[in-house]
């Protein structure tokens, strides 16, 4: 009897262990199976299809199809602006189907997370993935994560892969914004990732004003900072929406101060202050913009505006999204923003209030020195490849197809619409790997306004035709064409790219002087320093003594800032 | 051992097994990760032991940080106030509810006050930001009826901590009240009858019968609360704070979150977390000992 009990004991224990252990290990098993399937496919591939194998010496076809098809893994960081046609999802959409049809590539997402802001959910999930080693073959990372992976020696050197497989058009796009994009992904002369190139000029700040309010209150267009203050005061005190309540404010602001909707960058640039940017001082050395005296003046003015109620009293608890709701509700008439603001969030304001009219203006200066918008490196994302990946060139094939579909010579308006904008849905977002021509948005504006003036649409490429048709839908006065209003405000004759065109033709955009990977001390101290900056600046705006700025500068230097400055200048000297 | 197996209790002990295994896997296993606190941890390198050892450098780094004392102070202040207020309010409410004779009224109140317990802070955070807004929030509209200037509850360092304590207690007191009410039903009614015969009024009864009767459960909740002395509530603070109130509201947990998850400095974050665990462990050990000394309460 005793024995049986003992045995039952042991048996029960074993069963429980089994349950726990099997529960733990089942996902791993699946993954293992997956991997072997993958490499098998790859093996078949290099054996079967001659021209596609890596070992093959024949000429590389940048858009060649894998036969049999291969499967690649990656991860996706999406955001709330992703919309899908019926039945589609991030795992199954027009891009995944096209990649299968045209390239024989099946994309498998190891995970999908919403939240692509700096420090957001996506970045955190990526950090966790890196820490736990659960990485896909193709890894979208930011520059800091890229540095981590390079240091850990996990990445494949893509120098030759890029040379061999990038199409001439892809190579052109990679260099359109200058050599910095590729340089920023190069470590010790080796290209360790492919940058998702963007356009630095597209990030230049500008002023957005509600012109229907301007007209109503008989105010001038903003030509100087004085005008901006005048407008802001009138919008706050003179009831521009005419509802009899003092519920409007002058200048919109979000709690992060820089970046996102309703940030301060443009305002500060008007004071010749360049927060979190490395600028050249008079001696030719690089210095940190946030600690320069111009910043102090700008903060003093912001404090004054806050006191008078011209800045949202509650900006401290409002992120960009909340600040956008404020604008959509018609509570604010001026903000410092970017070229894309008509599509978000101003179009929501237009939907709520048909009379709302917004116009963009170049940033203005507080003195006689012209204001210069400063832009960072236009690469927000890099695509790195794990060392043991079988088909690293798949990355470049996808990018080749992406740029070819968007702006290549072989694409058609239908093909473009299908993959980029059809049905008012931004379909281009689905493509896992992308690259964007730096000048293309400006060219759209130039070509579209030319076509509007002359009536000749024959010279437009598919994307431009698509944009023009959106704009024409709006101009024809049809109902429900607010989206067309948004496009008109961006690419139209008086769109926001008119402002950027002014910046470009007067050569006033200042590019970031530092575009390397974060330095040793930056990785360690940046978080502390940035937190301190945000805290001190927000409190000064909300009424703390302006002299706290001097204490901040001293603290910043002491707590690692001096060391970072040293490292950045070292990088600059060796560039 | 075999003798013990004979005892009729062994099936009960067996039922502990799944729990023990879960604790081993999910609570003790991850403790291995503590080694990260003593490393210059390189996340992508994979294993726990593949990064270089740097001794106590991470701890020194944290001590050198200008904020660390402030964060510790905030954490302790917020947590202690939460424990005290969150401890007293449910006792008082349960004593008051206990005097209510109308059953449906008592039930109604109970249900109403423990509802917020089931809302997450991410929802309550959004609600509170609206409710406490200086320009449109209902609280400030109410205050303005009496001629007060609007108060920026979530952006003012002198108000932020009280708001944290009050909202936390508001969310949780109903739930704790139920625990005490349960304890109250366990008190022998004969004691009250005897007290009435002796001429004790309502107040004397409460003082000499109800409170002593609740004492064991009070001591138990107090002991459990001591282990939380450095848990000032990540969810709550994270959803309500902003840079302006870092000065009064930044706590260890939000700090660890920023350092660890946002900035990927895992070594430093682990060091802070380890420090916190050690302090919490000390506190709970002391309070357990005290509970044993003064209330004869013990688990083992």
From TrEMBL, chain A:
Residues 27-67 are annotated as: Disordered. Residues 36-46 have a biased composition (Low complexity). It comes from the Bacteria. InterPro entries: Bact_solute-bd_prot1, SBP. The keyword Signal applies. Residues 1-23 form the signal peptide. CDD domains: PBP2_AlgQ_like_1. Keywords: Cell membrane, Lipoprotein, Membrane, Palmitate, Signal. SUPFAM superfamilies: Periplasmic binding protein-like II. This is Extracellular solute-binding protein. It comes from Paenibacillus spongiae.
TrEMBL record, chain B:
Residues 72-287 form the ABC transmembrane type-1 domain. Keywords: Cell membrane, Membrane, Transmembrane, Transmembrane helix, Transport. Its main location: membrane. CDD domains: TM_PBP2 (cd06261). Pfam families: BPD_transp_1. This is ABC transporter permease subunit. It is a multi-pass membrane protein. SUPFAM superfamilies: MetI-like. Belongs to the binding-protein-dependent transport system permease family. The chain crosses the membrane at residues 12-38, 76-97, 109-129, 178-197, 209-230, 266-291. The keyword Electron transport does not apply. It is found in: Cell membrane.
């Amino acid at each position: 009897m005793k024995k049986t009990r003992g045995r039952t004991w042991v048996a029960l224990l074993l069963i429980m262990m089994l349950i726990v252990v099997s529960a733990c290990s089942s996902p791993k098993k699946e993954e293992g199976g997956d991997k072997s399937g993958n490499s098998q496919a790859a093996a078949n591939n290099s054996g079967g299809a001659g021209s596609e194998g890596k070992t093959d010496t024949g000429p590389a076809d940048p858009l060649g199809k894998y036969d049999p098809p291969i499967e690649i893994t990656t991860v996706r960081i999406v955001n709330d602006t992703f919309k899908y046609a019926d039945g589609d999802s991030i795992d199954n959409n027009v891009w995944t189907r096209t990649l299968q049809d045209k390239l024989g590539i099946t994309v498998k997402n190891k995970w999908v997370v919403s939240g692509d802001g700096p420090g957001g959910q996506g970045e955190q999930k990526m950090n966790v993935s890196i820490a736990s080693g659960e990485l896909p073959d193709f890894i979208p990372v930011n520059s800091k994560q890229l540095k981590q992976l390079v240091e850990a020696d996990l990445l494949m050197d893509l120098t030759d892969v890029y040379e061999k497989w990038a199409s001439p058009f892809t190579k052109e796009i990679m260099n359109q914004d200058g050599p910095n994009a590729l340089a920023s992904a190069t470590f010790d002369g080796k290209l360790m990732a492919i940058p998702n190139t963007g356009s630095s000029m597209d990030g230049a700040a500008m002023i957005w004003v509600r012109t229907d309010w301007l007209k109503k209150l008989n105010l001038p267009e903003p030509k100087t900072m004085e005008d901006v203050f005048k407008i802001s005061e009138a919008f706050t005190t003179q009831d521009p929406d005419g509802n009899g309540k003092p519920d409007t404010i002058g200048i919109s602001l979000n709690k992060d101060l820089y970046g996102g909707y309703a940030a301060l960058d443009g305002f500060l640039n008007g004071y010749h202050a360049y927060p979190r940017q490395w600028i050249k001082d008079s001696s030719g050395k690089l210095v940190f913009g946030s600690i320069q005296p111009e910043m102090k003046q700008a903060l003093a003015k912001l404090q004054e505006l806050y006191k008078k109620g011209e800045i949202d009293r509650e900006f401290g608890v409002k992120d960009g999204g909340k600040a956008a709701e404020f604008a959509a509700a018609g509570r604010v008439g001026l903000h410092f923003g970017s070229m894309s603001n008509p599509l978000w969030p101003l179009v929501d304001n237009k939907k709520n209030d048909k009379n709302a009219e917004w116009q963009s203006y170049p940033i203005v200066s507080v003195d006689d020195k012209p204001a210069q918008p400063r832009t960072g490196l236009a690469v927000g994302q890099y695509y790195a490849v794990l060392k043991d990946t079988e088909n690293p060139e798949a990355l470049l094939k996808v990018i080749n197809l992406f740029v070819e579909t968007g702006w290549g010579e072989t694409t058609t308006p239908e093909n473009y619409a299908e993959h980029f904008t059809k049905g008012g849905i931004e379909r281009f977002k689905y493509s896992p790997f992308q690259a964007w021509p730096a000048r293309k948005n400006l060219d759209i504006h130039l070509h579209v306004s030319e076509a509007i003036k002359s009536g000749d649409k024959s010279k437009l490429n598919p994307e431009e035709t698509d944009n023009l048709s959106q704009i024409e839908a709006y101009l024809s006065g049809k109902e429900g064409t607010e989206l067309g209003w948004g496009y008109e405000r961006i690419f139209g004759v008086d769109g926001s790219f008119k402002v950027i065109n002014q910046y470009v033709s007067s050569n006033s955009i200042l590019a970031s002087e530092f575009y390397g990977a974060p330095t040793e001390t930056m990785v360690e101290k940046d978080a502390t320093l940035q937190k301190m900056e945000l805290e001190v600046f927000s409190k000064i705006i909300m009424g703390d003594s302006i002299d706290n700025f001097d204490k901040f500068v001293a603290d910043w230097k002491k707590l690692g800032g001096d060391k970072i400055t040293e490292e950045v200048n070292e990088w600059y000297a060796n560039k | 051992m075999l003798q013990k197996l004979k005892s009729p209790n062994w099936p009960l002990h067996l039922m502990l097994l799944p729990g023990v295994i879960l604790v081993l896997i999910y609570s003790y296993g991850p403790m291995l990760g503590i080694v990260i606190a003593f490393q210059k941890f390189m996340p992508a390198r994979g294993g726990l032991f593949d990064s270089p050892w740097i001794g106590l450098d991470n701890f020194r780094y944290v001590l050198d940080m200008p904020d660390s004392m402030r964060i510790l102070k905030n954490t302790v202040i917020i947590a202690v106030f939460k424990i005290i207020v969150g401890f007293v309010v449910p006792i008082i409410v349960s004593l008051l509810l206990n005097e209510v004779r109308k059953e449906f009224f008592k039930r109604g109140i109970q249900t109403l006050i423990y509802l917020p317990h089931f809302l997450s802070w991410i929802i309550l955070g959004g609600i509170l930001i609206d409710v406490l807004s200086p320009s449109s929030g209902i609280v400030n509209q109410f205050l303005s009826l009496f001629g007060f200037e609007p108060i920026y509850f979530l952006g003012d360092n002198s108000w932020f901590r009280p708001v944290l304590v009050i909202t936390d207690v508001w969310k949780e007191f109903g739930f704790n009240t139920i625990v005490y009410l349960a304890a109250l039903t366990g008190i022998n009614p004969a004691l009250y009858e005897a007290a009435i015969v002796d001429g004790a009024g309502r107040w004397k009864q409460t003082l000499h019968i109800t409170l002593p009767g609740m004492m064991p459960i009070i001591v138990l909740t107090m002991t459990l609360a001591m282990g939380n002395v450095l848990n000032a509530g990540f969810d709550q603070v994270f959803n309500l704070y902003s840079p302006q109130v870092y000065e009064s509201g930044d706590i260890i947990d939000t700090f660890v979150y920023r350092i660890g998850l946002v900035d990927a400095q895992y070594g430093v974050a682990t060091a802070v977390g380890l420090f916190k665990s050690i302090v919490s462990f000390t506190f709970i050990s002391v309070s357990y000992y005290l509970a044993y000394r003064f209330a004869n309460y013990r688990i083992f």
